[in-house]
Specification:
Elements: H1 2-14, E1 20-29, H2 45-55, E2 57-60, E3 66-69, H3 71-84, E4 91-99, E5 102-110
Parallel strand pairs: 3-5
Antiparallel strand pairs: 1-2, 1-4, 2-3, 4-5
């Protein structure tokens, strides 16, 4: 029995995370996310940067669900947005583990 428990515990630790990928997804802030569903590409970078302080940053899925990035992903996304000089039409490829309406971000790249 003891060997079985040790083996089960070892497998649980070694279990892979289940990363998902979202391609060319609109990146918006959480404060405006639900309002941006209709025309996310017109949502401005300035608004995303400003409103991210309250609502965070994430993506809109194909069905209009807002998925918020974890703290590391938010910082990375905002740094990339700042460097990009984009004004609107902010799209991203994101890889990470979805947990409810949050994403534990592994990678984020602006399009």
């Amino acid at each position: 029995m003891r060997i079985f428990l040790i083996a089960a515990f070892s497998l649980a630790l070694a279990a892979p995370t289940f990363a998902e990928t979202w391609k060319n997804a609109p990146m918006v802030d959480g404060l405006c996310g639900s309002n941006a569903k209709k025309d996310a590409d017109k949502h401005t970078a300035a608004c995303t940067k400003h409103c991210s302080r309250t609502g965070g940053v994430g993506i809109l899925t194909a069905d209009g669900t807002f998925l918020k990035f974890d703290a590391k992903g938010q910082k990375t996304a905002l740094d990339l947005l700042e460097k990009s000089g984009k004004k609107d039409h902010i799209r991203a490829d994101v890889t990470g583990e979805r947990k409810g309406t949050d994403i534990i971000v592994e990678t984020v790249a602006l399009k």
